[in-house]
Design goal:
By secondary structure, the protein is an all-alpha fold. It has two domains: about 55 residues, Orthogonal Bundle (Multidrug-efflux Transporter Regulator, Chain: A, Domain 2); about 55 residues. About 60% of the residues lie in helices and about 0% in strands. It is elongated and about 70 Å long. The mean pLDDT is about 90.
């Protein structure tokens, strides 16, 4: 058995990345096309599994494909400064913090709508009234 004996199914199982996703990553160039067996089956190795795990983890943290591509390219020169990787992560953190702020404003507005609803008739419903008139909102940030 050679060092590239893993089928796509086994690579998916070991990496936690679904088979169609592995094919997609190969298609968009995040994962290099592995060699094929005589039966034209993809053959993956440990390096491929490490790369798949890296991609999966980065996606779980919300990194975009372009950022993952750039981070992967940085791993090819391990002795270089990690300034660029830090910059990518810092930018992503700022984006996440902005989303959290917007979600907190949304949460507050929805809580207020629900709390102000008297559970009476639709014609008196604060949820419906606020949704119908954005001016009734306290936070324009959502």
């Amino acid at each position: 058995m050679n060092s590239r004996a893993l089928t796509i199914g086994e690579a998916a199982r070991q990496s936690g990345v679904k088979v169609p996703t592995i094919r997609f990553y190969e298609q968009i160039g995040l994962l290099p096309a592995p060699p094929r067996s005589e039966g034209n089956r993809r053959q993956f190795d440990g390096k491929d599994l490490s790369r798949l795990s890296f991609i999966r983890h980065a996606r779980e943290l919300g990194f975009e494909v372009a950022d993952i591509r750039e981070l992967l390219s940085l791993t090819e020169t391990p002795q270089n400064s990690c300034h660029e990787a830090d910059s990518i992560a810092a930018r992503h953190l700022r984006e996440i913090e902005a989303r959290i702020e917007k979600l907190q404003a949304l949460r507050g507005e929805l809580q207020r709508m629900v709390e102000e609803c008297g559970h009476g008739k639709v014609c008196e419903c604060r949820v419906i009234q606020i949704l119908a008139d954005h001016g009734e909102c306290r936070s324009p940030a959502h």
